[in-house]
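4.2 Preliminary Data

To establish feasibility before requesting continued support, the project team ran the inverse folding procedure on a target of 220 residues. The structure was first converted into the token representation described in Section 3, and no sequence information of any kind was made available to the design step. The complete token record follows.
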């Protein structure tokens, strides 16, 4: 397939690009600093564009089968976080013009911060307050897709804490919700490797099961 990857210079994005190339997909990486992406492959094209401008994105979106986003934005303690919604509005506008219908984007467990009530003390009192602005803007982006993009085949992938590491052989667990629960309804784990997240995102290329849904995932 022809995949367009946003956030391809990031830690998950680079793993997604590598795995996609291993799976013989044609990959177009849209980045702001091309020199940051050091992967070289005949099936990889790296282009520079502004993720906040539909006009800048649209020429690169044409004839792509799917947009995959591993974009991430800083925690924005003073100024707040708007990158998720602002980029997604430009991405969706470009998708409409370029007639691309499918997008898979990653956010996180607990994009509704109150959903973390059953999580550990560390998550509730340290992690969530620290990244609250990120989670809130992720949730706003999810709501935008849910409420205003019914014509698109979107999927939101929600992982827990990300660890640097390749795809593992662990079992994949998924749940349509803000985290993956154990039998008692509590979060079943805290983390997943970025390689497993990339692998799960790519597995969705051949599945219709999570269309217009947000899926929490983890491997154990
Ligand atoms: N850290 C965790 O434990 C955790 C847990 C769950 C979910 N997440 C979320 O998962 C996603 C991926 O995480 P990650 O750690 O793989 O991300 P990352 O390494 O921080 O990469 C972020 C990507 O977004 C790009 N980006 C940021 N601002 C941009 C801008 N203004 N214009 C163009 N590109 C821009 C970066 O480009 P540059 O390389 O040019 O900066 C980079 O490619 C993020 O949304 C993150 O919040 C993280």
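Position-by-position output of the design step:
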């Amino acid at each position: 397939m022809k995949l367009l990857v946003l956030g391809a210079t990031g830690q998950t994005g680079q793993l997604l690009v590598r795995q996609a190339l291993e799976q013989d997909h044609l990959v177009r990486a849209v980045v702001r600093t091309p020199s940051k992406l050091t992967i070289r492959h005949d099936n990889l094209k790296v282009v520079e564009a502004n993720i906040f401008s539909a006009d800048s994105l649209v020429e690169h979106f044409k004839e792509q089968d799917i947009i995959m986003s591993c974009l991430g934005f800083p925690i924005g303690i003073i100024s707040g976080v708007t990158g998720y919604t602002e980029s997604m509005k430009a991405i969706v506008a470009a998708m409409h013009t370029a007639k691309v219908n499918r997008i898979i984007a990653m956010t996180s467990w607990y994009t509704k911060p109150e959903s973390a009530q059953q999580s550990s003390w560390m998550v509730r009192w340290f992690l969530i307050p620290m990244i609250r602005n990120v989670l809130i803007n992720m949730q706003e982006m999810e709501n935008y897709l849910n409420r205003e993009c019914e014509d698109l085949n979107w999927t939101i992938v929600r992982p827990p804490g990300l660890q640097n590491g390749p795809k593992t052989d662990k079992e994949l667990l998924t749940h349509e919700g803000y985290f993956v629960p154990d039998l008692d309804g509590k979060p079943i784990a805290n983390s997943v490797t970025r390689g497993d997240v990339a692998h799960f995102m790519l597995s969705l290329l051949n599945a219709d099961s999570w269309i217009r849904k947000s899926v929490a995932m983890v491997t154990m």
